[in-house]
Specification:
This is Phage virion morphogenesis (Putative tail completion) protein. The protein is of the alpha+beta class and 159 residues long. The chain has helices at 9-23, 26-46, 59-67, 81-84, 102-110; strands spanning 48-49, 52-53, 86-90, 94-99, 112-114, 120-122, 130-133, 141-144, 152-155. It has a 3-stranded antiparallel sheet.
């Protein structure tokens, strides 16, 4: 009889080390969060979002901004407050961009009623994207316009 003994301890250690690197994608996600930040900045600069160009400002808003010497200009960049609060973030399995001034950020992302007595309707001008896995756990990522959470979020769906 022939006996074969396999000592695979070294191979198992290497496989475990490789698996731990794949399960913590923090370095990859850090890079992705910076790419997402540039995408959001591009949306603000070019006045478009995941669904296309934004609606124009109302004539009343254009007049008010012109009288303040803030028009012509970018729709969502009167003071730079929104653009300057964009922050990239990441974890082991996700990358995102969030906007710091929540109330101001949300009304422009989703639209809604604003002003005294909520008499002004602001149309949505989405500048953030949301990414979700396209397949059931296959890790394929596709951009999808949503009315969900404001931060850009990319999940690798490793689990």
């Amino acid at each position: 009889m022939i006996t074969v003994t396999v000592n695979d301890a070294a191979v198992n250690r290497q496989l475990q080390a490789l698996a731990s690197k794949v399960s913590d994608l923090s370095p990859v996600m850090a890079g992705l969060s910076e790419i997402l930040l540039e995408e959001v900045r591009d949306n603000l600069a070019n006045e478009h979002g995941p669904t296309g160009p934004w609606p124009r400002l109302s004539p009343r808003t254009v007049l008010r901004r012109a009288l303040q010497h803030k028009w012509p200009g970018k729709m969502l960049q009167v003071s730079g407050a929104l653009k300057n609060t964009l922050v990239p973030g990441h974890g082991a399995r996700a990358a995102w961009v969030s906007a710091g001034t929540r109330r101001y950020a949300a009304i422009h992302q989703f639209g809604g009623q604003a002003g005294r007595g909520r008499r002004v309707t602001i149309p949505p001008r989405p500048y953030l994207h949301r990414f979700i896995p396209a397949g059931a756990g296959n890790g394929t990522i596709t951009p999808t316009a949503t009315t969900g959470a404001a931060p850009v979020f990319l999940d690798t769906d490793l689990g």
